[in-house]
Write a structure and sequence with these properties.
3-stranded antiparallel beta sheet; alpha+beta; single chain; 7 strands
């Protein structure tokens, strides 16, 4: 029988770590909901209001979005080599050159197509997603049913490009 926790009693380390992990998942999924094109069609009915599907352990992923399959990892301390690359190298250089930090991680232990990973800041990532969505919108704006729009004569008449130059 489980012992009930008294009001002032501290949580166990394992319980604290699970809660920190869930909090990290929720925050990552909230961020993705705000900046991505939305939840993947397959999980719209089961995702929580934060966009999290991690409670369905058979999915083995924290969130499914149009652009990304999101898996959040939380740790107290980054490995020293990674912390050094971010804090002591990429961030100071980005400030000095007034650009964005990018840390590239390479691992021979991963499958060939996934050996290189790019770490960027959430702000930069959001900016790139906005640009991608704007580009998709602009491309979609000039095509109707797969035909390129040449011009609009009046509100009811649309001219399509026939592929021949005038």
């Amino acid at each position: 029988m489980k012992k009930k926790k008294n009001k002032g009693e501290r949580q166990s380390r394992g319980s604290q770590n699970r809660e920190a992990g869930k909090r990290a998942e929720r925050n990552a999924c909230r961020w993705a909901l705000e900046h991505c094109s939305g939840l993947h069609e397959a999980v719209k009915e089961i995702a929580t209001k934060t966009g999290r599907v991690g409670n369905y352990t058979n999915l083995e992923i924290d969130g499914e979005f149009v652009e990304y399959s999101l898996e959040s990892k939380s740790c107290k301390r980054l490995p020293e080599w990674l912390r050094y690359g971010i804090v002591d190298q990429a961030l100071p250089a980005a400030k000095r050159f007034k650009n964005h930090p990018l840390v590239v991680v390479y691992s021979k232990t991963l499958p060939v197509d996934y050996r290189v990973w790019h770490l960027i800041t959430p702000d930069r990532h959001a900016e790139l997603l906005r640009c991608e969505q704007e580009l998709k919108y602009r491309k979609a704006k000039f095509f109707i049913d797969g035909k390129e729009i040449k011009g609009i004569k009046d509100l009811g008449t649309i001219e399509f490009n026939d592929g021949m130059d005038d």
